[in-house]
Amino acid sequence: MDKIESYLYGFLGNCITYAPRLVGALLVLVIGIWLINWLTRLTTRALNSRGLDISLQSFLSSLLNIGLKILLLVTVAGMLGLQTTSFVAILGAAGLAVGLALQGSLSNFAGGVLTLVFKPYKVGDQIEAQGQNGVVKEIQIFNTILLTAENKTVILPNGAVSNGTIINYTNHGNLRVDITIGVAPENDIAKVRAIIQEIFNANELVLKTPAASTNILKMADGAVVLGIRPYTSPDHYWDVFFGMQEQIKLAFEKNGITAPPGHQIIINK
C-alpha cells in the first residue's frame, strides 16, 4: 500500500506540475491550427485575386498549410518539454537530400511559378523559346506545352525557359511581316511602290495602323532589293506572308514589272 500511495502521489504531483504546460500546449495547438487555416484561406483569396493558375493556387496554399503545421507541432512539442533538436535536424537533412535529388525538377518548378506569377506569356500566345516557335497550349507547374506550325507538340522545361530568352509574338497585338523581293533596276520604283500599296489596301488582313511600308533595302548584283513591311494580327501572319508574295508576283506580271536578271557562271578552260 505504501508503494501504491507513493506512485499515486508521484503521479498527482506530475499532473499538477505538467498540467499548466499541457493546457498551454493544447491552447497553442488549437489557436495555431485556427490561425493557420485562416491564413491559408487568406492566401488563397490573394492568389485568386492575382489571377494565378488554379493548380498553382492549390499547390502554394497546401505548401504553406503543411509547412506552418509542421512548425506548430515542433513548437508544441517544445512546450511539453520534448527534445526537438534531433527532430529539426532530421527534417533539415531530409529536406537537403530531397532538394539535391530533385534539383532539376525544383528548378523547373521555380520556373513554372515565376511564369505563372509574372506572366511573360500566357495560353494562346505565340512565343519563341529554347529554339522552338509555337503557340502556348498549356502552362504546367514543371513544363510549358507548345504547338508548332507543323502541328508538333513541344514540351519545354520551365526552368530552361525562364532562364533563357523568350520572344512573345502576341503580346503587342500585331506583327510586322518581313518580305524581301528583288526587281530589275530599270523598273520605275514609284510605280512598283504604287502597285504594292494597292495590294496593301485591298488585303483585309493587312492592318491600316501601323501603316505598311515599301523601302529599298539595297542595290547590288544587278537588282533593287525591296523590303516590304505590312502589319497583321498574329493569327494571320503566315496568311499575309505567303498571300502577299503571290499577289505581288501576279501584279508585277500584269503591270510589266521585270525581275532582276539571272546570274551566269562562265568557266574558261
Description:
- It is a single chain.
- This protein is of the alpha+beta class and 269 residues long.
- Helix content is 54%, strand content 18%.
- The termini are far apart.
- The chain contains seven helices and ten strands.
- Helix 1 packs antiparallel against helix 2.
- The mean pLDDT is 82.
- The strands form three sheets. A five-stranded antiparallel β-sheet has the order 4-3-2-1-5.
- The chain has three domains: 100 residues, Helix Hairpins (Orthogonal Bundle), CATH 1.10.287; 51 residues, SH3 type barrels; 81 residues, Alpha-Beta Plaits.
Q: How are the elements arranged and paired?
A:
Elements (H helix, E strand, L loop, with lengths): L1 H48 L4 H26 L5 H17 L1 H16 L7 E4 L2 E8 L3 E5 L5 E5 H6 L2 E3 L6 E2 L2 E5 L5 H14 L10 E8 L2 E7 L1 E2 L4 H19 L14
Antiparallel strand pairs: 1-2, 1-5, 2-3, 3-4, 6-10, 7-9, 8-9
Helix pairs in contact: 1-2, 6-7
